[in-house]
């Protein structure tokens, strides 16, 4: 059997520091991986004049999986949009066909105090948000700024975008979601805005059709505004949520913030063959970059997801997840999740503690 | 001076009960209003076969202001979309040109316990969300279900919608928002998704231009996913938020839920001449309709907003707002905001208490 190849894309801000720790953890597993690093985001622009340099995209395509840090930093804010760091993320998603974004929002019992929500509302929270990632208004053509061709503002300048979902796009993400629900509490909430949008009436109809293949899963439909409210009111009522790219962007971040510990949350973005890109749910936090205080656990847990979904090594994934639980139980905390009575550690110490706990 | 005419549209579910109390409060002010009632939503469909009957729309157009209850009930769920109750809301907004939706999210000190968030995070919350209400993907043409004309799914069935904002549409809502901020803490957050959407890059550019007219207001731009997170993390940091129709739908409901007392929150939807439609931020709650337990305060406070914005009677508005504060201080609570140690009252008792406190 060939060695599995992992593309390591550290990116900007705290990206390199946290990815370094995840790489240490991967290397401590005793498996033979081929790791190859390439610049992405601002670092890609700095090295090759583009946030997603050709060589980086090529590496990501060849690899069995991609471990991604984070992108974005102040000095790139004034670049024109097509050169800004976040274009790398959009480019990787589209070029690799990563249509299924899995974002668990889990609150570790030890960290319940970090949430802005009352402990009884969030402690033990364990929901999974599945966001479609290559369709919707993110990529829909046509789009641009033009002279309005019709309507009440005909003749004026206007900005416009197109929301689109094709039947097979909805079907494939629905299958991912129903299958994920089957492995959990067998409850799926499909979030739409069918009362207003044609795209999401269509979405709702197709999800309802796919449901026939999964009679053991309870399906509920919910409007996006109501979903945003229920996430605040009673987030533990959800099991798996599936939604489109735009609504998923908003809801998955809101859900992550409910836990108060976004520094703990991994994510996976998968293609049709379970190849994937794995990244922490948080951003590049340029304000604390280089200080050695960033929390590497979301990235380490992303590496665990990678082992499970793309590298077929569920046992190794569990080893990492248990090691993370252990360091939390030991009372080790980076600054973002620190509370009185626990031990504050830096990025490297936290990574080393996970390696030790393996 | 002519008598001012108010269209009363009670709607469905708890709508009639809560509007009745707001009407009692209006009548207790000692002003001469002409009140005329018409059916809307499911009630409109039941009476005239359409959620927004011609007579109801005519009345709303003639009136100086509209007091609206809520629409929606189980028996109308299976109607085809164009006949469902919520179409009445969309129809009124579009036909009356109600482009500016003002939704305060205020947490009364007495009700801090009702929130799912920790008291220190939300007590004293006082933010104002201004949502554009007649543009965006809500009304943008073209839309529908079709055979995909291009793209990776060409030839397949797809649902699609068009997001659009014209320059003058953005300008006018920006002016409303900056002026509202001037009357408050002089801080405005414009929420967009300029990193992905052309419409919202355009939005951001125009809002930045309009800012030149309001140098005393501090303007900040924030991506919608981050705004959803910051609302959960530190909602009190906001003063005024302005955003588009779709993002506003989601964020204003999330913000309302932060308070834990959505039964307390009014809203105003204004046209270019301060004519407006006023309604509670909550829905028609068919599960508790007719039980006499619904909270009428959001509707009563909506009537206060109506006096302030459309009827030029700010003093009367304040009288009502103070009366509401007084009944809360007296410890009166409807079931939705009840806590041990307070006095539980029904819809009528709460309305009567406000009248008495006037
Ligand atoms: C950076 C941005 C384009 C991206 C998105 O909107 O998808 C980010 O918010 C995310 O959720 O990964
Ligand atoms: C009922 C629905 C069409 C409406 C909307 O999406 O605008 C509602 O959610 C609201 O916010 O008033």
Descriptive overview:
- Chains A, B: InterPro entries: IsoCit/isopropylmalate_DH_CS, IsoPropMal-DH-like_dom, Isopropylmalate_DH.
- Chains A, B: NAD(+) binds at residues 283-295.
- Chains A, B: This is 3-isopropylmalate dehydrogenase.
- Chains A, B: Its main location: cytoplasm.
- Chain A is α/β, with parallel strands linked by helices and 358 residues long.
- The longest helix of chain A is centred in the middle third of the chain and has 16 residues, at 167-182.
- The first copy, chain A, is globular, with a radius of gyration of 20 Å.
- Chain A has twelve helices and 14 strands.
- Chain A folds into two domains: 1-106 and 266-358, Isopropylmalate Dehydrogenase; 126-258, Isopropylmalate Dehydrogenase, CATH 3.40.718.10.
- The mean pLDDT of chain A is 97.
- In chain A, helix 8 runs parallel beside helix 9 (245-258), helix 10 (297-309) runs antiparallel to helix 11 (314-329) and helix 11 packs across helix 12 (347-357).
- In chain A, strands 2-1-3-12-11-4-5-10-8-9 form a ten-stranded mixed sheet, sandwiched between helices.
- Helix content of chain A is 39%, strand content 22%.
- Strand 7 of chain A pairs antiparallel with strand 7 (157-166) of chain B, so a sheet runs across the interface.
- The complex binds 3-isopropylmalic acid (2 copies).
- One 3-isopropylmalic acid sits between chains B (86, 89-90, 249) and A (195-196, 225).
């Amino acid at each position: 059997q060939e060695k599995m190849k992992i593309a390591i894309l550290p990116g900007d801000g705290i990206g390199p520091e946290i990815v370094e720790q995840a790489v240490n953890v991967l290397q401590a597993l005793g498996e033979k991986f081929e790791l190859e690093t390439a610049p992405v985001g601002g670092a890609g622009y700095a090295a090759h004049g583009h946030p997603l340099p050709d060589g980086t995209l090529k590496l990501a395509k060849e690899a069995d999986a991609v471990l991604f840090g984070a992108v974005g930093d102040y000095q790139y804010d004034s670049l024109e949009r097509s050169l800004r760091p976040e274009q790398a993320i959009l480019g990787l998603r589209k070029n690799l066909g990563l249509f299924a974004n899995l974002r668990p929002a889990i609150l570790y019992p030890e960290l319940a105090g970090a949430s802005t929500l009352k402990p009884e509302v969030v402690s033990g929270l364990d929901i999974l948000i599945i966001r479609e990632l290559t369709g919707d208004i993110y990529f829909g053509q046509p789009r641009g700024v033009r002279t309005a061709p019709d309507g009440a503002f005909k003749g004026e300048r206007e900005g416009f975008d197109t929301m689109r979902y094709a039947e097979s796009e909805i079907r494939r993400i629905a299958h991912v979601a129903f299958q994920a629900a089957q492995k959990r509490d067998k409850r799926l909430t499909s979030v739409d805005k069918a009362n207003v949008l044609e795209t999401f009436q269509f979405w709702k109809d197709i999800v309802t059709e796919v449901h026939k293949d999964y009679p053991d899963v309870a399906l509920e439909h919910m409007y996006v505004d109501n979903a945003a409210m229920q996430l605040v009111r009673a987030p533990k009522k959800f099991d798996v949520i599936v939604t489109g790219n735009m609504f998923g962007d908003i809801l998955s971040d809101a859900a992550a913030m409910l836990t108060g510990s976004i520094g703990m949350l991994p994510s996976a973005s998968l293609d049709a063959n379970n190849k994937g890109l794995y990244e922490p749910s948080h951003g590049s936090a340029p304000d604390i970059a280089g200080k050695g205080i960033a929390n590497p656990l979301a990235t380490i847990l992303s590496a665990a997801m990678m082992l499970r979904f793309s590298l077929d090594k569920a046992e190794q994934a569990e080893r990492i997840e248990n090691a993370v639980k252990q360091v939390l139980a030991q009372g080790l905390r980076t600054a973002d999740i620190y509370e009185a009575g626990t031990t504050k550690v830096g990025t490297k110490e936290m990574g080393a503690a996970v390696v030790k706990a393996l």
